[in-house]
Amino acid sequence: PSPASFNGAPYLSELPAMPTDLPGTDIKRAPLDSFRIAIAQHVSSSLGVDLNAALVAVGTGKIGDYTVAVPRFKLPGKPNEISEKAAAAFQPNEFLSKVEAKGPFLHYFLNSKTLIKLTLQTVHVMTHGYGAPRDEQGNTQPSYGTNRDGEGKNIIVEFSSPNIAKPFHAGHLRSTIIGAFLSNLYKANAWNVAKYNYLGDWGKQFGLLAVGWKLFGDEQKLQEDAVNTLFDVYVRINKLASEEEDGKGEKIHDEARQFFKKMEDGDKEALALWQKFRDLSIKKYIEVYDRLNVQFDVYSGESQVTKENIVKSLDQLKTHDFVTREDNGALLADLSKYKLEKAVIERRDGTPLYITRDIAEAAQRFDKSFDGNGFDKMIYVVASQQDLHLAQFFKVLELMGYEWAQKETSRLQHINFGMILGMSTRKGTVVFLDNILDETRDKMHEVMRANEAKYAQVENPERTADIVGMTAVKIQDMASKRINNYNFDWSRMLSFEGDTGPYLQYNHVRLCSVERKAKESDNLELPTSDLDLSSINLDLIAEPKARDLVMLLAQWPDTVKAAMKDHQPSTIVTYAFRLTHLISSCWEFLLVKGQEKDLALARLFVFRCCKDVLGSALRLLTITPLDRM
Ligand code: ARG
């Protein structure tokens, strides 16, 4: 069967048929949707309200699983009496076991047996079965939690965007982590995603770099690691250029300006050197990004905004009232009316600025992206230090009249974030990303070595240590609201206790090992990719703890949707921690070892589903879940 013939969990066909055309629902992918529809049906029939209106009124509450507030419907009569009447008309069914009327509220309790069966089967078929799409090699792509909401829509996510020859700083690291997550998130919601890296790859610094290259250039080093090599050259030449003695520094600056002028004028030789720096820097970036499990579709950058488009934007801008020529000759966009200050958009000497390129680049992207179809949305993941810059250039685009930049319907969004404080190695030196990643890896490697028996089982310990280290860095970054600053805290981040990355990996590894051991020592084998779930008797799962756990698994698709609304990685991280805490508290209630075979298998299946969902959460966060460590 192909994904097209996907009918959802086998158990779904044994249940009363549900309408499949209600907006925002997808009963094959999201188990809770069936229950919400069942509640809406009861509300609709007992109170005579529209089914869709009833559906959106189904919310979470403190009592039961879902709550409906009756006053919402503005019906004639007393809300308390109306809810009593609705409760009196309730008949338990496959989806709902009971309803309690308390004042104007209706509290619904889901049928646990159906909840458990439907949820676990859905997790399974969406992860290993026909509900999961396949890649070119035919491997299933776990997709429980995904939805089709964004089908046919295009988004550009611009993130990372470092500057060549300058340090890759904490702001770039956060942008990389958050931007890669958001790209995954949009994909999980069925959007077409194009990932852009907008490099700082043009400007006078390349003039300085060229002068420095003549003095201290080392071709071999450049080939090996352009990012660090060019930074060294840049630091050294800047030092020389700041020397006052004999006008030495001034001379260097003059030379640099001349070189950059040559670049601007299209001089072949100057451009060839610049191109080499750019290409080799990108090559090195790709390596570091790969290590972080991040890939880009487009390496754009300030250099890629064409002169033509800059001129076009400037000409267009000059026709607007908010743009004025200053006495000193600079061109100014006056945004003070909007509390956005004034922004220079063309220097006195006619050269464009950072903001000018951003304006022209946005228009260029709308014309060129997605085979000329343009974007439905474009997100810029940039530190909150640049809030004003982003607000200014969004405003300018709006005032220029671009339909896609109009306030109410704007397709542009700035995703900002706070700072990382104290990001330096443990020895205290401020550093490059590489050093940070190396140090986390080495530290994790040490921890792993301490357990010799386990260590011997790990196939590629170095890479595993690297992944755990990366998980530590990423989880620390995404654990709280984006806008918060946080301290780069080595000992906390690398600990296996508390809400840390290593703790999440540890839980995933434990789930994997339980399954391995059950197979090796008790010959318990779970279904992998087939749909034959009849060998698992889920009626045996009835513990209240197990129900809580399954309810949380059932909420995973909702969590993915919630993150789409708030664009907060912490929504996903918080879910992952809730899940691991609940799993930890379930080991003793859901013993596998020493149990009768059917029971052991059913419980093992619950843990397998937990592993699948935890794995999905980690992957969504751009983290590779580990099987051993
Ligand atoms: N390269 C810039 C910097 O490091 C960030 C670019 C952000 N993106 C943009 N379209 N302006 O500060």
From TrEMBL:
Residues 504-629 form the DALR anticodon binding domain. It comes from the Eukaryota. One of its GO terms (cellular component) is mitochondrion. GO terms for molecular function: arginine-tRNA ligase activity; ATP binding. InterPro entries: aa-tRNA-synth_I_CS, Arg-tRNA-ligase, Arg-tRNA-synth_N_sf, ArgRS_core, DALR_anticod-bd, Rossmann-like_a/b/a_fold, tRNAsynth_Ia_anticodon-bd. GO terms for biological process: arginyl-tRNA aminoacylation; mitochondrial translation. Its EC number is 6.1.1.19. Pfam families: DALR_1, tRNA-synt_1d. Keywords: Aminoacyl-tRNA synthetase, ATP-binding, Ligase, Nucleotide-binding, Protein biosynthesis. The keyword Magnesium does not apply. It catalyses: tRNA(Arg) + L-arginine + ATP = L-arginyl-tRNA(Arg) + AMP + diphosphate. Belongs to the class-I aminoacyl-tRNA synthetase family. This is arginine--tRNA ligase. It comes from Kalmanozyma brasiliensis (strain GHG001) (Yeast).
